[in-house]
Amino acid sequence: MKELSRRDFLKNAIIGGAVLGLGNIVIHAPMNALASGKFDMGLCKSVRIKCICELPCIDADLNSKTINDAGGGEVNQWTIPWVRENAAGNCTLIDMETLEGIRHKFLLDAGGDGPYMDKCFKREGIDNMLKSGEIEFLFITHEHPDHLWGLEAVLKYNPAIRIFIPDTFYSEGMCFLEGAQYIKPSAVNLIPHRGELLKLSGGQIHKLYEGCAAVDLDVPLPVRARGEALLYFNIKDKGIIYVTGCGHPGVLTLAEFARKNFAGGENLYGIYGGLHISFFGGMDAEKEKLVRGMADYHFKKIACNHCTGVEAVKRMIELEYPIVRGTARYGSWTDLYVGNGDEVVFG
Ligand SMILES: [Fe+2]
Ligand SMILES: [Fe+2]
Question: Ligand 1 mean position to 8 CA, how many Å?
């Protein structure tokens, strides 16, 4: 790799992390471990999370039918006829506060369709926050339609926004970021991304701010996608939380990752986001095992939604897990969990 001049480095440097530049695409340098083998991400004061939207789609049966009719999980998402009217998506506003009282706001995922997301953004004032630069970056967890295909609505208000992605994006996803229209699946982004694109390397820990670390896990995903990134926060006097898009690597894998790798990882405080347990179909013995396994981590606040599955959440409530309830405003399927327009504070 070419040696960077200090000027080049500073051009790409971001607070709390190191970045290596390759034109407009940069690799975010992972953290080094402590002598104990664990990683110290530092501490933050609090994390306020606003669910801009969390619906994987409008109609889950229609979504399953679309995938099954096209050939199942092995198909290429960019070549099958998704029903555009059924698109919704996942997008989360994270507002973290450092111990010094500095706030950092960023978006996790871009939702599933431009016009749907534009409505959500206007409802929650995200349009103005993007325009003003108040939202520092967009963190895309993975290459699934409901997390990526709403990108145009973000770029419409800030085409130069810094974007993080897993480094395992396929060529179709990379083209989409540059501005592309895929006719058959109705995946549209006509606004090229003009800002920095930061790639996270699989299996590595990347510190973004004191008390905030990004992790990308290189896991195979259905419909031609690979790797899912997520965020961990270490909140002073509370413990570690993790924030997911779909949580495809598994709710227990993600908890265990924190326990094994982070200083303070023995104290897990909470979860926000999709846990991908019973979205397709109801509960079975394997899913029951996953839900019961969560008890080992003694979470104090579980704000799961998106692809977690209503049946899985009902089971967690039966088991008296501390599930944060929502309002089912703005189209979310149930008030049993945090949904569109709802907010949860950790800290
Ligand atoms: Fe997903
Ligand atoms: Fe999803």
Answer: 35
Cβ-in-10-Å burial (0-12, 13-18, 19+) of 1 comes to: exposed
Backbone dihedral region for residue 321 (phi beyond 0: left; psi -120 to 50: alpha; all else: beta): beta
pLDDT in tens, the chain (347 residues): 344 444 444 444 455 567 776 667 777 889 999 999 999 999 999 999 999 999 999 999 999 999 999 999 999 999 999 999 999 999 999 999 999 999 999 999 999 999 999 999 999 999 999 999 999 999 999 999 999 999 999 999 999 999 999 999 999 999 999 999 999 999 999 999 999 999 999 999 999 999 999 999 999 999 999 999 999 999 999 999 999 999 999 999 999 999 999 999 999 999 999 999 999 878 999 999 999 999 999 999 999 999 999 999 999 999 999 999 999 999 999 999 999 999 999 99
134: in domain: yes
Cβ-count burial of 35 within 10 angstroms (0-12 exposed, 13-18 middle, 19+ buried)? exposed
* Residue 36, domain member (yes or no): no
- Asked whether residue 62 is domain-assigned, the answer is yes
Which ligand sits nearest to residue 147's alpha carbon?
2
Q: How far is the CA of 138 from the centre of ligand 2 (A)?
A: 16
Measured in Å, residue 196 CA sits from the centre of ligand 1 at: 24
CATH code of the domain covering residue 303: 3.60.15.10
What's the CA-to-centroid distance between 143 and ligand 2, angstroms?
9
Query: Whole-angstrom distance between the N-terminal and C-terminal Cα of the chain?
Result: 41
